[in-house]
Design brief:
The protein contains 20 helices and 9 strands. The chain is α/β, with parallel strands linked by helices and 421 residues long. Strands 1, 2, 3, 4, 5, 6, 7, 8 and 9 form a 9-stranded mixed beta sheet that branches. β6 and β7 form a beta hairpin.
Length: 421
């Protein structure tokens, strides 16, 4: 009996191996292999041949849609995804793909319907919730977008992009007159994700709750890692002037020459060109690896360090003749530790140049965090903090740092000095 069973299994294997693969399926697999290798142009005609031979291959329609979308043929891709649904691909992915390509084609109503169908079939699809939120954000339906982002985060609590999307849309909702709704959603965000740096910092600002004395390091790192690729372009659009204003301050006070210079919070290196003429050695420090990659490409620094600023300053006592911090202290509410560490890192007679956003004089607080996540400071507080750190204030100018939502952002452009003795 045992021998008979073994013989039967062997016969089944030989029979299954002998089953011919239909030509349409073979073509589809060849197309899949080309698409996986990045050759979507080569995959396209093979998908077409496979579907001409057997138009009922739902998965092949879906994969053909992916290839067509990659080729920029959006209407054909949408038709392919619809064909996938028609021929029985109902687990939600074809609807999701259809929604994505319709959003790309700016057919928003159809895209929303496709996303909602995808989510009805697969409510655990975090990416579909996130992309539906993106669509609603595009349409200006910020409250609905926030709800969808929250659903995405309920499924993927550590998803950095979805947290970033939620923070951005709550800011837009707040700025467009939905302060109460934005605050309520921000409180839920903080409740559900108490350890997330964006929820803790941006959520507090939008909810009007007490913020940390400084922005969490993880918040700064995550924000600028996500922002690195478009940072310079975005700031140019905002007419960002802090590096130029600080450069002007230095040209009036500091002779060019043989100095050890620190670009504190250097970002992509926007200050490097202005600082290089003063520097025997130019060092940059920043929390964001993404920003430092851009700074490194400029080829103007002698050293770059991915680390937290106050700790770096404290570890480099009496090392620098000049420290510049362009729009860095706007991520600190309380300035005491940062200014004390800067003084310690300066040699006697060394200078600290920095900018902060200026708090409305009508606001009686020393500093406050705004809904975009940056702190603004009262001039009187800045002057006192500089003095308390043992620095001498040489200049404190008022000027426009940038535009925000079409409105000028006024700031303080400060030059302080460690006493020579």
């Amino acid at each position: 009996m045992a021998g008979s069973r073994s013989s039967l299994r062997g016969g089944l294997r030989r029979g299954m191996a002998g089953i011919a693969v239909p030509p349409a399926v073979k073509l589809s697999r060849q197309a899949d292999a080309l698409a996986a290798a990045g050759d979507v142009a080569g995959a396209d005609p093979l998908y077409a041949q496979a579907l001409a031979a057997d138009p009922t291959l739902a998965g092949t329609h879906n994969n053909h849609g992916n290839a067509l979308r990659a080729l920029g043929r959006l209407d054909e891709a949408a038709a392919a995804y619809r064909a996938a649904v028609f021929h029985g691909l109902h687990e939600g992915m074809a609807h999701y793909n259809l929604g994505s390509v319709l959003r790309q084609a700016e057919r928003q109503d159809e895209a929303e319907a496709a996303f909602r169908q995808a989510l009805a079939l697969r409510p655990d699809h975090a990416e579909a919730w996130n992309n539906c939120g993106n669509l609603l954000r595009d349409l200006g339906r910020f409250g609905g977008a926030a709800v969808d982002y929250r659903r995405a985060l309920a499924l993927r609590p550590d998803w950095a992009d979805a947290h970033d999307n939620l923070g951005a849309v709550l800011y837009l909702l707040h700025e467009q007159g939905g302060e109460e709704d934005a605050a309520a959603l921000a409180r839920l965000w903080r409740r559900d994700h108490p350890d997330n740096p964006l929820a803790r910092h941006i959520g507090a600002a939008i909810a009007g709750e007490e913020a940390d004395p400084r922005a969490p390091d993880d918040y700064v790192r995550q924000t600028f890692d996500l922002f690195a690729d478009e940072f310079d372009r975005k700031l140019a659009e905002l007419d960002y002037r802090a590096p130029a204003l600080l450069a002007g301050l230095l040209s009036d006070d500091v002779p060019a020459g043989d100095l050890d210079v620190l670009d504190a919070g250097c970002g992509t290196g926007l200050c490097a060109e202005a600082l290089r003429p003063y520097a025997r050695r130019l060092v940059g420090v920043d929390l964001s690896d993404g920003m430092l990659k851009r700074a490194r490409a400029r080829g103007l620094y002698d050293g770059l360090h991915a680390t937290e600023l106050v700790g770096f300053l404290a570890a480099h006592r009496l090392t620098f003749d000049l420290v510049m911090a362009a729009d860095v202290f706007c991520y600190f509410g309380v300035l005491d530790d940062a200014l004390a560490a800067a003084r310690a890192a300066l040699r006697p007679g060394g200078r600290l140049a920095f900018t902060v956003e200026e708090l409305d004089p009508a606001d009686e607080r020393p500093h406050r965090v705004a809904t975009h996540g940056r702190y603004a400071h009262a001039e009187a507080y800045v002057r006192t903090a500089v003095a308390n750190a043992g620095l001498v204030l040489r200049r404190c100018d008022h000027d426009r740092l940038r535009f925000e939502s079409g409105e000028p952002v006024m700031g303080l452009v400060v030059l302080a000095q460690r006493p020579a003795v």
